[in-house]
Amino acid sequence: MPTHAEKRNLPYTPQQLFDLVADVERYPEFLPWCLACRVTRRKGNVIFADLAIGYRMIREHFGSKVTLKKNKEITVEYLSGPMKYLSNTWKFIEEKDGSCTIDFYVDFEFKNFLLQKLMGLFFNEAVRRMVAAFEARAVQLYGAEASHKGRQS
């Protein structure tokens, strides 16, 4: 039921941002509430991963299928866990100046009514913090101004 969609232009190439988002095994290093990630299988451009998420007393695990369309799009499909469904898409749009506009969308619903209500209260803040964590990771990996301009050969 909670959904969030946003577009954001960042001074990085689509490849840089795609690589950052596709590196799911590193999520516990920088993503709030992501406690662990284990890739269970890789098949071509598809990654199957189990994530552990938690906040205070709440701990949940869920399985997902991550489909990578090199430098263009990443889609996440829910496979198992505490949710009724999860739909998540990242699109990486190259701009004329070499920067990248990220088109981000997430929609999900928990099976547990109490978890769903709790998440509904904090959803917007949680998504803002997660998006900020990805941006901070980009700065950490590529520099604040180390954009497309400094990366061209």
Condensed summary:
The protein has 153 residues and is α+β, with helices and mostly antiparallel strands.
Question: How does this structure look, described?
Answer:
By secondary structure, the chain is an alpha+beta fold. It is 31% helix and 46% strand. It is built from four helices and seven strands; from the N terminus they run βααββββββαα. A seven-stranded antiparallel sheet has the order 1-7-6-5-4-3-2. The longest helix has 30 residues, at 113-142. The chain is globular and about 45 Å long. It starts with a strand and ends with a helix.
- The whole-number mean of residue pLDDT values reads 87
Taking the sheet with the most strands, its summary is: 7 strands, antiparallel
Radius of gyration: 16 Å
Based on CA inertia axes, which overall geometry fits?
Answer: globular
